[in-house]
Amino acid sequence: MIIITGGAGFIGSAMLWELNRNGEEDIIVVDDLGSTATEKWRNLSGLRFTDIISVKLFAELLERNALEGISAIIHMGANSSTTETDADHLLDNNFGYSKKIASFCMKRDVRLIYASSAATYGDGSNGYNDAIGELSTLRPLNMYGYSKQLFDCWAVKHHLLDHAAGLKFFNVYGPNEYHKGDMSSVVYKAFHQIGEKGSLNLFQSHRPDYRDGEQLRDFVYVKDCTRIMAWMIENPSVAGIFNVGCGTPRSFNDLAEATFSALNRQTVINYIPMPETLRDKYQYYTCADITKLRQAGFNETLTPIEDGVKEYVQHYLSMENPYFDYKEPDSHIA
C-alpha cells in the first residue's frame, strides 16, 4: 500500500493519477478537504484509492505505530503559502509533521519521497545546487522556505537521506491546481485573465539588466514531476535531495506567448509596476540544476513550456471537467 499525504492537493492528486495510470489503486489519501468553496474534493473525483483519512488521524496513527503493510509514503502535504506569516503554524505543519512521518519510515524501512522546495534557495545568490553539502549556505526569503530548509537539514543530520528522496520543486503548473487561489500558477491565472480581458498583466522589471517580462523561471509541467516520482518508487536505491525542474530558464514573456498561442489569440501584454512589498524579495532568475537527477538515472525528456502549456490549456482548462481522470491517457502531447 502507498500513502500520499496532501493527496487531494495539486501535486498529490496528480501523483494519485500517475499511480492509477500505472495500475496502482491500493492507496491511502491523507488530506483535509476544507470548505466546499475551494472544491478541493474535485481533484479526487474520477481517481481510485482505498481510503481517505484526515491529517489529524494520520498523525495519531503514526504516533501509535498503527500502520501496517505500507510500502511507500509520498509526502506532499504542507502549507505551501509563501505569504503565510504564522511561523509557529508552519513549524508544526511543515517541519514537525514531516519529522513524524520520517521517523515512522526509518523505523519501518518504508520508502519515503517528500516535497522540499526551490523556495529554500532564497534569492538564488548561492546558486541552485542540490548537493547536500550546500544546504548550510542557503538563505530562504520566507518562512515557508525556511520550514522546508529546516526539515532538509534535519533529514541530513538523522541520515534519512541515505534512503529517502527529497524533491525541490521549481515552478510547477498543470491540472488540479484549481483550488490554490493566489498560489496557482501563472498559466492558470493567464488563461482566466486573457479570457476575461483579452490581455495579460505581467510585472515590470525594476532592474536594468532585465527587460520587462524577461524575468526567468524554471517552469515544470506537473506530469513531469509525477513521472520523476514514479521512477523513484521503482528505483528505491535513489536517495538524497534532487531538484525537480526542466533545467532551462524561460521568461514570463515566453510563458505568456505560449498561453496566447494555445488559445489562438494575439499576444497582448501589459507591464505593470511590481508592488513595493515584493521588490526586495522578488527572484529575477531561477533554474534547477538537474545534473544529479540525470546522474541518478532519470533520462526521460522533460516537457517544453510550449507543449505543456498547450496541453494544459486545450485539454484541461478549456474543458467543462478539467480534472485528472482515471481513464485518461498518459498525455495529449504529440
Structure report:
The structure is a single chain. The protein is α/β, with parallel strands linked by helices and 334 residues long. It has a domain of 223 residues: NAD(P)-binding Rossmann-like Domain (Rossmann fold, 3-Layer(aba) Sandwich). 35% of the residues lie in helices and 14% in strands. The chain is built from 10 helices and 13 strands. The strands form 4 sheets. The protein has a 7-stranded parallel beta sheet, with helices on both faces. Strands 7-10 form a two-stranded parallel ribbon. The longest helix is centred in the first third of the chain and has 22 residues. 41% of the residues are buried. The model has no long low-confidence stretch (mean pLDDT 93).
Features:
334 residues; alpha/beta; Rossmann fold; seven-stranded parallel sheet; two-stranded parallel ribbon; 10 helices; globular
Major sheet description: 7 strands, parallel
Tally of helical segments: 10
Annotated CATH homologous superfamily of the domain at 2-176 and 219-247 and 284-302:
NAD(P)-binding Rossmann-like Domain
Sheet-strand content, in percent, reads: 5-15%
| Average predicted local confidence, pLDDT | 93
Find the structural class using helix and strand composition: alpha/beta
CATH architecture of the domain at 2-176 and 219-247 and 284-302: 3-Layer(aba) Sandwich
Overall 3D shape: globular
